[in-house]
């Protein structure tokens, strides 16, 4: 089973590449942040798989740090970036069309 | 190969479809609320299955607990992010799909 794990990691990497399409398309900043969050989860899994494959168990601590950073990143995004944009008065106009880019 | 190896390997491979379907949902679903729903599956179930599978395969209780700790951290991160993003999106006036 373990010898198949590099291919699983490769599949997850391809998964991340496909997920980049959501970052390109948007349409809101939250959609891009969701894609980035998916990248963080995939990174944790890839690092864990590589830790088992290579036998280097210190990589598990790296995955732990990734998990912590994922929590911080999303909270910082909503708390600082997204709410701040709402305060600037852009919230009222044109929120429901899919064309706006910067929201 | 022992039984623990098989069970752990099967759990890891069972987690893989959740990631693929999570990405599919992220790309295909129509608005941010439904995309949150798709992403939560990859974050919670997919990572959980992989972590528990690798932990069982390692055969060490300390390692299993550490992997479960990573999973619980990601659970907290994804639950917090989902609540904050959905709440802020509603407050900003993004209407859920179909309403």
Order of helices and strands of chain B: HHH
Q: β content of chain B, as a range?
A: under 5%
Unreliable segments of 5+ consecutive residues of chain A: 89-103
List the helices and strands of chain A in order: HHH
Mean pLDDT over all positions of chain A: 80
Structural class of chain B: mainly alpha
Helix tally of chain B equals 3
Quick description:
The complex is a heterodimer of chains A (103) and B (99). Chain A is 78% helix and 0% strand.
Written account of the structure:
- Chain A has helices at residues 5-25, 29-54, 58-90.
- With 103 residues, chain A is mainly α.
- In chain A, helix 2 (29-54) runs antiparallel to helix 3 (58-90).
- The longest helix of chain A has 33 residues, at 58-90.
- Chain B has one domain (3-91).
- In chain B, helix 2 packs antiparallel against helix 3.
- The longest helix of chain B is centred in the last third of the chain and has 31 residues, at 61-91.
Helix and strand arrangement:
The complex is a heterodimer of chains A (103) and B (99).
Chain A: H1 5-25, H2 29-54, H3 58-90
Chain B: H1 3-28, H2 32-58, H3 61-91
Helix pairs in contact in B: 1-2, 2-3
List key phrases describing it.
heterodimer; A: 103 residues; mainly alpha; flat; disordered C terminus; B: 99 residues; 3 helices
